[in-house]
Amino acid sequence: MCTVSFVKVNDKVIITSNRDEKVLRPSAVEPQYYLVNHKKVLFPKDNKAGGTWYAVDEQSNVLVLLNGAEERHTVKERYRKSRGLIVLDLIGSNSPIAAWETIGLVGIEPFTVVLFENQKLYQLRWNEITKEKKELDTDKAHIWSSSTLYSPAIQFQRALWFHAFMNTNLAVNEKELLHFHRYTEAENKEHGLVINRNDTLKTLSITQTIIESNKVTNHYADLIKEQYHSSTFITV
Description:
By secondary structure, this protein is an alpha+beta fold. 18% of the residues lie in helices and 41% in strands. It has helices spanning 83-91, 96-102, 152-167, 174-183; strands spanning 3-9, 12-22, 29-36, 39-45, 54-57, 62-67, 111-117, 120-126, 131-136, 142-145, 196-197, 201-212, 215-222, 227-234. A hairpin with a 4-residue loop joins strand 13 and strand 14 (227-234).
């Protein structure tokens, strides 16, 4: 939930997400299909709150969560609801982007959502005061880093790594993007793509979705257990 990239190459959409989390948090359940408001949704489940940071529905809409909005915030002692459950509220609706307009977020910790719906890409943000919706160009590559873990300077540096990678891989594919998310700046345990901060905060998993025509493939790598899961479905 803390590093996300979006790339479109030859009508193939590739979305990849690294989840950085405290190692004491209960292990997540690998991606499975669940019924969310009568919709079939694929997502890895957070065992602590029951929500998720990454969800894909039957229409190949993809919703990815990052902690924090544009700037780092002061964490309160208690919030009304987990951000991971907000993800399920949105993806479980008929249209996540329409649901964003009406969902109530008072009492929810700040977050950013990357949403790919109906071939359109959105950045959605809640900063405890206002909601923001921004449509992005799908013909451009994008990367996000969580404001709660990475300063603006480090976010900028990570974006430079990403765009340098893209500029030297004009025909990039999903395997190369997965390699980028797994091994870029591997010796940099504080700010590389896979972190390990004093064995208390680590990159726990990498999730990737590839959308090509009506075929959707999802890959999930549990970096702690060294387990890998893949699934493919045809959109309805």
